[in-house]
Amino acid sequence: MVLKLHGLPMSTSTTRVMICLHEKGLDFELVPVDLFARENKQPLFLAKNPFGQVPVLEDGDLTLFESRAITAYLAEKYKDSRNDLIRHESLNESAMVKVWSEVESHEYDPVVSQIVHQHFVAPMIGKTSDQTVIDENLEKLGKVLDVYETRLSNTKYLAGDFFSLADLHHLPYTFYFMKTPWASILNDRPHVKAWWEDISSRPAFEKVAVGMVFGEK
Amino acid sequence: MVLKLHGLPMSTSTTRVMICLHEKGLDFELVPVDLFARENKQPLFLAKNPFGQVPVLEDGDLTLFESRAITAYLAEKYKDSRNDLIRHESLNESAMVKVWSEVESHEYDPVVSQIVHQHFVAPMIGKTSDQTVIDENLEKLGKVLDVYETRLSNTKYLAGDFFSLADLHHLPYTFYFMKTPWASILNDRPHVKAWWEDISSRPAFEKVAVGMVFGEK
């Protein structure tokens, strides 16, 4: 039975899962959800995810939401297929994948998402970008990336010398962030820059990036 | 070698890990970190966690940070000890643990932590509680708990009919939230109330709750 992913090719949460599916070489059907028509707040969708958010993955009878839970599920179920994204054979390596995945969730995502939203989303919905919010978050982002720079001068990827979910989860928002006027914050840090160029040129991401046209219209 | 946990018995992140250690029946040494003296921002601590936050777990040569990564590591390493908190024998059940753990992280924690901080922390550091922030988050919390109420009318715990990390992660902040004037938001929802009474009366949590005196002085 083919995997069904409900979401949008420009949504950061949806693409987080799509990249994982491509990394694992899995076939899936992308079922579009019309967010503008609030399809995600209708009973049919709420039955799949009561929080009314994309993405949702249907794998036979199993219905999952929360993008990072879905990638972790796929990485576990298909751990022996292509790259092992959770390093299941090593307790220590898998622990580091968990640590740096949580860092993405709690240190990186809240900061970079605010910048992307203020820069791209606010104008789209008729609001003015709040430069104070952007500046505050740029400062926070700089501090987070200082930690990344030190980390990535010791290991090639965040969790160690292996590509993992911890890196993958960064791709969608960083891709949009690099289209803002502040990409230099990342490019000025040589190890972070090299890491970004590495992970963003992986074929699995390139397949997904072509649909990430948010902010281009 | 005994596990070393660096943190504070009143910190929500530290207690998240302590509860897990008690659930697993593991001995550990709690190494106090003097946050008021900014010990967590000194080189010795930053070498353990470059983000300068408690808790940090040292297990022999392995140093871990991010409370939810630590609980997931402990639950994996000691999966056969006492309660299996990640349901490793069932791919579907472990997927639901992942989903509801992410819900705690992204839907519940950001909302409840704001209320607790405004109510307890702001006055402690000489600021005025911002009632607008509290009200906004109480409204959001109500919506999240509506979803929980429906979920918990179908399953005894969040991920299914078994206690898991997904429930455990809720304990620290909910414990403090229940000391605010708005505990009725939770108590008015009978299935959520029954779930809270169940998980907060587990012996592993009761051992930890006695040290959670934040907001009482």
TrEMBL record, chains A, B:
<dbReference type="InterPro" id="IPR034347">
    <property type="entry name" value="GST_Phi_C"/>
</dbReference>
<feature type="domain" description="GST N-terminal">
    <location>
        <begin position="1"/>
        <end position="82"/>
    </location>
</feature>
<keyword id="KW-0963">Cytoplasm</keyword>
<dbReference type="InterPro" id="IPR004045">
    <property type="entry name" value="Glutathione_S-Trfase_N"/>
</dbReference>
<feature type="domain" description="GST C-terminal">
    <location>
        <begin position="90"/>
        <end position="217"/>
    </location>
</feature>
<dbReference type="GO" id="GO:0006749">
    <property type="term" value="P:glutathione metabolic process"/>
</dbReference>
<dbReference type="InterPro" id="IPR036282">
    <property type="entry name" value="Glutathione-S-Trfase_C_sf"/>
</dbReference>
<dbReference type="GO" id="GO:0005829">
    <property type="term" value="C:cytosol"/>
</dbReference>
<dbReference type="InterPro" id="IPR004046">
    <property type="entry name" value="GST_C"/>
</dbReference>
<dbReference type="GO" id="GO:0004364">
    <property type="term" value="F:glutathione transferase activity"/>
</dbReference>
<dbReference type="GO" id="GO:0009407">
    <property type="term" value="P:toxin catabolic process"/>
</dbReference>
<dbReference type="InterPro" id="IPR036249">
    <property type="entry name" value="Thioredoxin-like_sf"/>
</dbReference>
<keyword id="KW-0808">Transferase</keyword>
<comment type="similarity">
    <text>Belongs to the GST superfamily. Phi family.</text>
</comment>
<dbReference type="Pfam" id="PF02798">
    <property type="entry name" value="GST_N"/>
</dbReference>
<keyword id="KW-0216">Detoxification</keyword>
<dbReference type="GO" id="GO:0043295">
    <property type="term" value="F:glutathione binding"/>
</dbReference>
<dbReference type="Pfam" id="PF00043">
    <property type="entry name" value="GST_C"/>
</dbReference>
<protein>
    <recommendedName>
        <fullName>glutathione transferase</fullName>
        <ecNumber>2.5.1.18</ecNumber>
    </recommendedName>
</protein>
<dbReference type="InterPro" id="IPR010987">
    <property type="entry name" value="Glutathione-S-Trfase_C-like"/>
</dbReference>
<dbReference type="InterPro" id="IPR040079">
    <property type="entry name" value="Glutathione_S-Trfase"/>
</dbReference>
